[in-house]
Amino acid sequence: MSNISLQIDNILQQRKQRLPSINDILARCRDMQKPLQLVDEAIAQISDPLDSKDPLKEVCNFCHESIYNFQSELTDLSVNIQRNLGRFQRETINIGFAGTKGMGKSFLLQNLSGLSENEVPTGDGMPVTAVRCTINNSIENNAKILFFDDDGFINNRLRPFFSTLGLPVPDSLKDFRLMKLPSACQDDKEEIYRQKLEKIQEQIDVFSPYLKGREEVVPLDNLRRFVSYSVPNNDRPGGLEPSYIYLAVSSVIINCSFPRSDVNKLQLIDLPGLGELDPTLEQRHTEGFQDNVDVCLFIRRPSGTRMDWDQEAQKALEVLTRNTPFSKPSDFVLFVLNAGGCKHDNAQIMLEEIKNKLGGRYKILSTTSSDSDGLSNDVLINVLMHLANKLPEADSEIYTKLNEKLRLILESIRSFTDKVRQDLKIRGKGQDSEEVIRHAAKDAKRSFAFTCSDLLKELEVKSQSNKELEGLSDELDVIEKNIQNYYDNGFNAGSKEAWFKNTRNSLAENIGFGGVLEREVNKMRVKIAESFSSLETLYKLRADEVRGRVIDAFNQEDVLNNLLTGQDVECKLQCFLDYIDNADMPIPKMRNAVETILKLRIDHDTQFYPRAYEPIRSLKNAVSARGFTLDGSNTMEVAESLYCHLRDLGDKTTSDISRLLISETRQVFNILYVAFEYFEDLIVRNEDAEDEWIRFFKEYFDDIRPGDRKSNQSYLLNKALKLIDDLRELTL
Length: 732
Known about the structure:
The chain is α/β, with parallel strands linked by helices. 64% of the residues lie in helices and 8% in strands. The protein contains 29 helices and eleven strands.
């Protein structure tokens, strides 16, 4: 690795070490915005219903104004940080080249970059380059041109002229085309501006087709007409003719292969127009210094007639130093005395002139070389040595300024919170918010308990009653008809005739009466068991009715005020669990209670099968072949006798099950009663119940009592005070 490459890599590596610290400042800026917004919203809730003469209104107005200012300062700081992040994240060292016309700036750029007159044109004492260009060392060989759109052209090219002349800025390109400009200006400087503006208006048809607001890639041999004030034309005096296409160009990136291959991480930035009488040039050519230029070379070259430090040079230096990212302009601007091909005496006169006018504050490099290697040794290596010493200081200074700005903002926010907290407590009146929430929670719990007690009494009465479960008889009739259809269908053989035929065949095949009987009894047992399992839906309906009553009790206006939402009762109970789970404070017993009701099931197979299904389990014994005979002198008669006997036994089994289920009706309500009583114990009678209701209300008071947010000033004040305290904590 060459000395130049090594220097560049070391500088960039040191710079990147600052990135985490810069990102930390940016993160803190962003973290402060949301808490400020929350405080502002809380203050707005207090302020909106207040009369303009209320003393508290003045405090609220002060809060709004202060928060707006803090948010603006943090936003501005964030933008500044983001801009500087580009500087610290860059993979290149960027060197700007500036100078007044005829000082040899373009000559130096040509020799360092390997470009020609076509890309970096030179002129004999006349300004030639009109557009800021960034030159990359790249294997590509092209130029990327970014064009203005209409608005960009108006704001960047026209607005500075119109503002300087005190004229209204046109709203559109069409307005500018049709606008009648003043015929003359008395002030000489303003007259020059007017004439330039007049010329732009005359040439609008030349450059306006390019105002597309997009990027285009062009070959280097086609670049000059986009970046230069003039283009070659041998038919014109002086061999040049004006070109106005540059007016449509915002910036240019030139990619080319530098003569020296060891400067890969270096960008050269051509800053034209400094010192010229044009109000648009300073901003356009020096914007982005903070993040895009590491050092600027001010090129001076003695000529036969001008060796002094003139007004044009002074103005150009002032432009550069106003935009420097360094605290000391002399660290950012280096002078390069381009003395190649000049008389030695003239070069010495200019050197002394610079020293005398600038008091020796600026570093001056000198070169007489006219090739890449010579310029690299005379200029580039010295510039990199300068940057190796000064850039870490500048980067550290940037970080310090950003961090200090954040510290001052946080300090101001902290002072604001202390003052506002005191003013709100002094001028705000009303009951303490803790008491407001406690009373609301207690009242809600009391109202909920009253509703629950009515439901519990209903369930208790039903559990002790001998009345049949509503809907059970109808469901049993359906089950009985389903089983009868099963018999009529020949025990699912398709028909009784089909069953008779199958049974005769089985008897004829010597399977025997016992084998046929065992097979048919097992099938019938399964069918009867399956038929009665449909009662599961009836039991679920009873559980859902209880859950629905619980939801209605919770959603009463004086309890949770329709807080629980969802398509069905289970969704609404799950909504309640989500609220509990998302709370900052634990509410375990209330959660257990809600989950108990959500999971409440009356399960047919496990809760009723052991008692009500005894007839099914004994069915097999009832049809035991031992001591059991069938009438009939042939297989058909035996089959018919077996069918009738099986059907009679099935009917008896069905009847016995129905009778048992009817007698067990009270058990359904027992299950519901016991489950609901356990739920009520947890959520109402438990010793922690009141505290848990209060915790829930603290978490979701705004959602449960939205009307109180507007009417209960004391609650809103205390909510704001809590948010202000949280904000203050973030500033520490």
